Automatic annotation (TrEMBL):
InterPro entries: Aldlse_KDPG_KHG, Aldolase_TIM. It comes from the Bacteria. It comes from Octadecabacter temperatus. The gene is dgoA. NCBIfam families: PRK09140.1. Its EC number is 4.1.2.21. One of its GO terms (molecular function) is 2-dehydro-3-deoxy-6-phosphogalactonate aldolase activity. Pathway: Carbohydrate acid metabolism. Homotrimer. This is 2-dehydro-3-deoxy-6-phosphogalactonate aldolase. Gene3D superfamilies: Aldolase class I. Belongs to the KHG/KDPG aldolase family.
Length: 202
C-alpha cells in the first residue's frame, strides 16, 4: 500500500539519497522529491530515477524556471513541485510529460494553476491557510482537484486536514534532516505512515 505523501529530502546529497529512498519506499512512501536547493540535486534525481524509477515517483522540488524543468526531465524525473504557480513552469513540465504540482495559496492561484494544466495543487505554506482555509477553497474548486498540504502538516494534525478534504501531504523535516542515518529516516517514515493510516481511517 502506498500513501499520498511526497517525501521532501531537502539538503540530501547524492551519496546518501539512494539509501534514504530505499527505506522510504519500504515504509510505503513512494513519491520522493529532491529540492533543487540541495547539493548537486540533479545528480541525486538521476540516481533515484535509475534505481527506483519503476517503483516510485521521483522528481524535484523548489523548481522555479523552465531551464530547471528541462534539467529534471533530462535526469529522468517525473515530478515537478514548486513553491509558486508559474504558468511557464507548468507548461514546460506538462510538455516534458511530467507531473506538475505548483504551490498555491489563494483561489486565484488555484484556478490559474489548474487552467494552465497542473496535475494537483500544493497548498503552501499549509500552516498559513490551515484546514479551515482549505475547506473554504474546496467549496469552489472543480470536483476531483487534488490538493496536498505542505508546511505545517504532520502527524499531530493529519486528521484535521483529512476532515478538511485534503488529498495528501508533502513532508519534509519530519522525515528527513541533514545528517540523519537511514535508520533515523526509516523510523520516522514508519511513524509518519502509521499516523497517516490512523488519521485516514478516522
Amino acid at each position: 500500500m502506498t500513501r499520498n505523501i511526497i517525501a521532501i529530502l531537502r539538503g540530501i546529497t547524492p551519496d546518501e539519497v539512494e539509501g534514504a529512498a530505499a527505506v522510504l519506499i519500504d515504509a510505503g512512501i513512494t513519491s520522493i522529491e529532491v529540492p533543487l536547493n540541495s547539493p548537486d540535486a540533479f545528480t541525486s534525481i538521476a540516481y533515484l530515477s535509475e534505481a527506483f524509477g519503476s517503483d516510485a515517483l521521483i522528481g524535484a522540488g523548489t523548481v522555479l524556471t523552465v531551464e530547471e524543468v528541462n534539467r529534471v526531465a533530462q535526469a529522468g524525473g517525473k515530478l515537478v513541485v514548486s513553491p509558486n504557480a508559474d504558468p511557464r513552469v507548468i507548461h514546460a513540465t506538462k510538455t516534458a510529460g511530467m507531473q506538475s504540482w505548483p504551490g498555491v495559496m489563494t483561489p486565484t492561484e488555484c484556478f490559474s494553476a489548474l487552467k494552465n494544466g497542473a496535475d494537483g495543487l500544493k497548498l503552501f505554506p499549509g500552516s498559513l491557510l490551515g484546514p479551515d482555509g482549505l475547506k473554504a477553497i474546496r467549496a469552489v474548486l472543480p470536483e476531483g482537484t487534488q490538493v496536498y498540504a505542505v508546511g505545517g502538516a504532520g502527524p499531530n494534525n493529519f486528521a484535521d486536514w483529512f476532515a478538511a478534504s485534503v488529498d495528501g501531504f508533502g513532508i519534509g523535516s519530519s522525515l528527513y534532516k541533514q545528517g540523519m542515518t537511514t535508520a533515523d529516516i526509516a523510523s520516522r517514515a514508519a511513524d509518519i505512515v502509521a499516523a497517516y493510516d490512523a488519521a485516514k481511517q478516522d
